[in-house]
Each structure stands twice: as C-alpha cells, then as structure tokens.
Amino acid sequence: VLRAAGSGRLSGHNTDWLAIVRLLARATPSQFQRGAVVIGAGGTAHAACFALARLGVRFEVYNRTRDKAAQLAAQFGGSVRESLTGAAPGMWLSTVPPAALPELPAGAVHADQLLLELVYRPLLTPLLQAGLAHGATLVTGIDVLLEQGLAQYELFTGRPAPRAAIANALFQQYNAGELTRSPLYASKPLS
Questions:
Q1: What is the residue-wise DSSP string for the chain?
Q2: Which residues 6+ apart lie within 8 Å of 23 measured at CB?
Q3: What's the pTM value of the predicted model, to 2 decimals?
Q4: Residue 133 burial by CB count (10 A; 0-12/13-18/19+): exposed, middle or buried?
C-alpha cells in the first residue's frame, strides 16, 4: 500500500502477478501457444490467472474443489480442467503447497514446458523435481519472490531496483546454503 504524496490517498498493488508476468518471459512461443494449467484456486492462483489473462494466454484451472476452479476460471476468462490427464500444456503453474499437489500422470511433464512454482520452500518441490528430471524450463518460488521484491522496491521508490544487490541478499539469507546445493543455482551467478 502506497500513500500518494500530497493527497493522502492510498493505493494497493499486487506484485505476485507482476512477478509472474516477468518470469513467463522465459517461455517459448510454443509453450505460450499450448496454454497453461494453474493448479489451485487460492490467492496466488488469482494472481497467476490475472497474469495469464493479461498476457493473452489460454489457461485452465485445476483444483480439488471444482466449484472454486470454475469461479476462478470464469473471473479471468479461463476454463476448468477436470483432470490432470490429457494433453500436456505448455506451462504448469502450481500455487498449492507441495503436500497438496496431486500426482501428475506419466507424460504430463516433459522438456518442452515451463514449470512455475509459487512455493519457495522447499526450493525443489515435487513439480520442479519432475521438471528437472525431464529437462523442462523451471521457475522456482525463490525466482518469484525475487521478482516480487524487485517490483515492490520499484513501486515504493520510483527507481529501478538494484537487481544484483537484492538477489545476492535474498540468496544469502535463504536457508544457509540450500540454493548453492541446488542443481538450479550451484553454477549460476547471482547477478
């Protein structure tokens, strides 16, 4: 929430969807064409659906409670995915805790997909582990957290965020080395 100078008016901003839009830039045209499946129907699923709608990506919502999936899909112009079987999407976006993630059927995850996880602990959720095993493009919850922080900095200060400094501070604080043990970050520079 920001207070506008002089007027005292407050304005609210959601940086979840901004982070998701920025990170979906990693997707290929083929992945965008094949659409996305959002798993979950809670608050972060709303942000994911809003981001996909803003990007013009066709998407489906899968949730253990079909009515919630239908409400969310209708709100943002998506459709309901009745089951996780069937045609594999170009992108999977998981917004549920790892223990709540349903088991994906064989063939649901493959190399020509982008998998975006909004949970940042553990770093490698079951979805991302499957993606790593199949060579998919992975976006971790820590990637999302970083992009949220950068967007928040820019909203609060009106200046570009010092990306390298914020990334290094985040990665240094994240669970005393979990990132450096991860095959995703072990050889990746932090700037």
A1: -EEPTTT--EE---HHHHHHHHHGGGS-HHHHHT-EEEE--SHHHHHHHHHHHHHT--EEEE-SSHHHHHHHHHHHT-EE---S-SSPPSEEEE-S-GGGPPPPPTTSS-TT-EEEE---SSSS-HHHHHHHHHT-EEE-HHHHHHHHHHHHHHHHHSS---HHHHHHHHHHHSGGGHHHHSTTTTT----
A2: 116, 139, 143, 144, 147
A3: 0.87
A4: exposed
Q: Is the distance from CB of 172 to CB of 155 less than 8 angstroms?
A: no
Distance between first and last Cα of the chain: 28
Give Cα separations from 132 to 27, 32, 88, 183 (angstroms): 16, 20, 16, 9
pLDDT digits (tens, 9 = 90+) for 120-160: 888 899 999 999 999 999 999 999 999 999 999 999 899 99
**Distances from the Cα of 26 to the Cαs of 4, 42, 107, in angstroms?**
34, 24, 22
